[in-house]
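User: Here's a chain of 271 residues. Predict its fold as tokens.
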Amino acid sequence: MSEWDATSVEGKDTILRVVREEAGRFFALAEPEDAWEAPTACAGWHVRDVVAHIVDTTEGYFAAFDVARAGARPDDPYGLPAMGARVNEQAISFRNTTQKELLDRARADFEKMQGILTALSPEDWTGFLVVHPYMGPVPAYFYAAGQLMDFGVHSWDIREGTGRNHAMSGDAADLLVPFMLVLWQYTIKADADLTPFSVGLRIGGRNGGDFRIDIGAEGMAYAPGDITGLPAVIEFDAASMVLTTFGRGNFGTVRGDVDLANRFLNLFFRI
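Assistant: Prediction complete.
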């Protein structure tokens, strides 16, 4: 279903629509005065810090696009291992900013980023490379996925902090599944044991299916394919895979060798 594949131009309108929906939910959660210093699922972060993080991240995207359009040499990416400490430092630096000022800034940043992404030509959506502050050069469509990760996953974080039962939007989770496979490739621990082995993933949702995962000295490779006969298969619904990749919980059902499946899941640091 190409309209649900955000890596293709056919999926552009879909992901931008879903990002807008998730952003609307996010801002509604952050607006009440008594929510501002409420806890979230992000350790040590209040709602205000999550809003600040999205401001910092989105404004970093603006700078990245400016550099790419100017053909200038970008700064070296920080790398995902450095992401946790740096985004925390950036987020808490906004704690003296008022709720209204920070939310107004976040909304303005959101609209500006939507404008940048909407204006991309079909060729630029897939072919214009912009250096991500942590991941290095990625196609422009990845920034739409980054916005969806921020608003979709961090809305989940705010809801989790309320203590109420809740669930993640299927549209958001389905669109993010392909990007979770990429994130796994980028988040293998430096000291991981890469002695070769293979496992299968069975993922639900519009971008799901069966995937063969091969681990070896070069890292992780994946491809849709037959997982019959593999020693372990991990089954996820779309949201469970997203939340597992982001370290929000330990989800999934193992069929076969539980120890091998757990070895796979422990190859990665979580962001």
